[in-house]
Amino acid sequence: MRMRGPEEWRPEKLAYRIADVAYVLSISESKVKRLLRARILGHIKDEGTTMVTRRQLESYLKTRELEQGWLGD
Fold it and tell me: At the topology level of CATH, where does 7-67 sit?
């Protein structure tokens, strides 16, 4: 868990809603929805709420890196 300040801490998010995904990836919400519909970006549903886990975001980004020839860590 990440410390925010000397007296305040918040756990890291494990899952994100569509607006949060758009924010952390710096893309539009409509692009996030297209990625979800095309099954390019994984997601889970919980009682109608669409969420993308941190692991799914990391997998999406790693796939994009590999597709573009990036061979870093």
Answer: Multidrug-efflux Transporter Regulator; Chain: A; Domain 2 (1.10.1660)
